Amino acid sequence: MKKTFHIYFLVALFFGTFTGFAKTITVCSSCSIKTIQEGIAQASEGDTVLVKKGIYKEINITIDKSLVLLGENLPTIDGEDKGEIIKIVADNVTVDGFKIINVGTSYTEDYAAVRVIKKDGFLIQNLQLEKLFFGIYLEKSNNGKVLNNKIKGDAVNEYNSGNGIQLWYCKNIEVQGNTVENVRDGIYLEFSDNILISHNYSKNNLRYGLHFMFSDHDVYEYNIFENNGAGVAVMFSKFVDMNHNIFKENWGTAAFGLLLKEINDSKITNNVFQENTVGINVEGSNRIEYSHNDFISNGWAIKVRGACYTNSYVQNNFMYNSFDISYNSGMNDNVFNRNYWSNYAGYDLDKNGVGDVPYRPVKLFSYIVNRTPEAIIMLRSLFIDIIDFSEKVSPVFTPDNLVDEHPKMRKINHDRS
Amino acid sequence: MLKILKYSFYDLMRSRWSYVYFLFYLLLGVVLLFLNNDLSKAVITLMNVIIILVPLIGTIFGVMYYYNSREFTELLLAQPVKRSSIFLGQYFGVATSLSMSLVIGLGMPFIFYGIFNSSAIWDFSLLLITGAFLTFIFTALAFVIALSNENRIKGFGYAILLWLFMAVIYDGIFLMSLLYFEEYPLDKFSLLATMLNPIDLSRVMILLKLDISALLGYTGAVFQKFFGTSFGLLLSSAMLIVWVLVPTFFIWRIAKQKDF
User: Fold this and answer.
1) Per-residue pLDDT, B57
2) Which residues does chain B have within 8 Å of residue A368's beta carbon, measured at their own beta carbons?
3) N or C terminus of chain B with fewer C-beta within 10 Å?
4) Do A253 and B218 touch (CB under 8 A)?
């Protein structure tokens, strides 16, 4: 008898949530509710506010209850450059399927298209943001998701443009499948831990494709960073896992594929660095594992600036780079092993696929260029080839223990499944 | 002058050396294209060849031709022909046939390979044009050396020394001075030093089309700004033309005053 009662109760509860409690409030230009803000005001916890196709000129839409704000056929919210557009100040809010344009630009406040303030469990997806200042701004918010948004800015100057997706003091957030272009920093993280950034496409941004500060235990994988002003910068963080990303065509006088500054205990695996002025610029980073990466046609594949200890470079492909490795000191505490170097000229008599002569990836010329940058104009001169050769035979200026003892004879085919 | 040019040219076209030179380039082109199927990479290898080998061959061949055709030159001098046209005709004959061997020898395999459908076509044409310029420059310098030295051994010695200086020693001095004066701003100096050596100038012109990503970095921007613009390209080409004209002028002057 008691058991049946329980079942009745459960069934009632189940139907109740669908019919009785959660209702759908429709907003459209011909409905009784004409603005999104009014729709939210009419709704109660757990409701869905369905917004039909149309243009809504609203700013400061504040979502203060846990509800779903759903756009049908991509309705447009036009901020008319006046200020912030959607502000989420409740837990468990979903914002889905809007086109948000004309976010206001300010020099005193960071206006965003969507801002989440100190709340949990949000889901922001399928938004198209255009003409924006800041895109999606998460502050002190945890356990949320930012999925499949398209952000396209029109940034010209760094001082009056904002970031595509910004995380500030956040934890456990997934940022996936977003496309960010033409903003200042594509994705920006500060003091944010346990973040997953994957399958994003960040290109043509003014400064960095991805910018990372003081954020630990984060993973970023399967992203593409292309033609950003200065590539990707990862600074002052530890336990960062970077894998399966593509860094390409970050060109310019101060551009690099990836900038590592004060990064410790991290992993950089299975990435592709292609046609960057500098593939990876490393400064003060320790205990990093670089393996199974491809460095193709970069100016410098890896530029080691100093204070980098106990890093290991294993099983990477270095192909057609003007300089493979550049070091600015005579000391080396890093390990290079079993990489493939397209510049390797040794032989393999026992046919085991490993060259019999060690390879020295640092050329004397790269040392000279470090000291006197103007000397770059001598690149590929016969004289340079001669001194490089003599340095290779008896190293004087470059660290003499910096060798790959087991250079591969053939390009390594990485297993990237 | 045209008649003598034509004579020298046909004479060389019939000679074995032109064919060897032509076949060498043909072979080089074919081997490069068949060994690595990457067109851009083949162009880089070619650059090394053009920058080192073309001046060497131009120098040696120029000196050799002058000394070998000395009897014929003396015969011509007895005729009522202007001196300048004899020597300039010979010079242009040699230089033209050498550059033709280079351009056709390298061009043919690349055309069959399909360079016209490739984006590397401009790099490649720049390569050939620079090669032709280097031939003209170094043949002219070789003629100047040969004209001012009766002694063949001495003439050959100076010619080789000239090549060695331009290809290797100059860069050595250049690099030493860069390192010695590293405290000073060196952009202008290095630009000037590059402009003054035709081998360096050609190398940088080709490099900016190839290894652009490395050169773009940091101070490289200055060079990119200079050589990358049409003004820089114009000035570099003008410099190469000056490098042809000045030795040609010397050929003309020495030939006029020389006792035979």
Assistant:
1) 92
2) 175, 179
3) C
4) yes
